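User: What would this chain look like folded?
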Amino acid sequence: MHVASELTPFAKTGGLGDVLAGLPPALAARGHEVVVVLPRYRHIAERGLDSTLARRLRRFPVQLGPETIEVELWEGPLGASQRCRVWLVDHPASFDRDGMYGPSGGGGDWPDNARRYALFCKAALAIADQLDWWPDVVHAHDWQAGPAMIYAKSPPSHRPHPRRVFTVHNLVFQGYFPEAVIEELGFPRSGFGLDGYEFYGQVNFLKAGLTYAEHVTTVSPRYAREILSPETGHGLDGLLRTLGKRLSGVLNGIDDHVWSPARDPYLPRPYDAHTLWEKKQNKQALQRELGLAQRADLPLVGSISRLSVQKGTGLLLEAMPRLLEDGLQLVVLGTGDPDLEAAMKKLAAAHSDRVRVHIGFDEGLAHRITAACDLYVMPSQFEPCGLNQLYAMAYGSPPIVRAVGGLDDSVVDFDGKSGSGTGFKFGANTDVALEAAVRRAMIVFRDTRAYTALQRRAMSQDLSW
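Assistant: Here's the prediction, encoded as structure tokens.
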């Protein structure tokens, strides 16, 4: 049983949803019986994303602290295998809202997020018990699923203890709540301490996951090492160091059925490593779609990202005006910090012949950008894993990345002398270092033989789960 707040295509704000769409079917293909449990958010019904699921007519009672709450269940297959299924926990008072974690127009988090996600976690196990589908392993993801580790450690008396795995996708987001929620959520009072879920007088959902799990993973080996230091441990590095061998990094994979340029329905022209001339047709089509000059000689640089300091948006804004003078085109798709959104729009207005910025998210456009661009840029301040650099390599669009976390683990730096590498890496968290890396990549782009070999090396990797 995977317990998570996001699952593509039902709910997605970032890489978490894509991981939950790719990993469970890969486990099912190995013979495991897998269920992914997700809240039934309002937008799932509004967009008809649950049209392939069946609604259970019965209601399921869930004991959350002193209160008994009834939830409903929608269920159905996840992908092609009957061994992999999705359960949507339906509780309108908690999840029938305009926004997943907070109001969609901004304004912070929903004030009752502790209760919402604790109910979701408790419901996952209660439904499993009442349907007589009791998991051998409960695998919880990020702070929203942290309570599942507490509840799984104290199963119904007639059920065996499931093994408990917790994955940290991003340590920055931890889920802090006041001590007053303990009784309401049915957490053991004994756990409110240094060795439990307490963090500076507050309840910390992510810390609950770390302390109540039997094994903790992160989404890349390097990130598992980075979070052991005070600089990147966000207050939990001491606890993480005590885990020892119970902490490991497992590099994310991609769903290569969804992210495959040879069979991608969003692309005007499918292609593979042996038909890269078709990739050039995708570049031309995107330039035409976005109103850019249809020039094969100018490198088209793509960026699909949350616009934030963590993702290096500021570095990109600082370096790009100088790079645009030397001849490239830039396409950005993303949403995030309002000030950075405004700065991106200003950059596009100042360079209307070379830059296009789309604020928001568009799945089809994301696929078309990944296929069309000649180079893909990810200058992250830190990056637990990242999936977009994997998509870029699979599509023959060499990534330019900062050598941190999973970016460092997954991309091999280009070396012209040995003829090796799958992309370009830089170290310093500065716009100058980013600019130098982009210029190095532009030189290789103009060397047709070296660039084509680089593309084919990137595309030849097995990036799947």
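The chain has a mean pLDDT of 96. If you want, I can go into more detail on any region.
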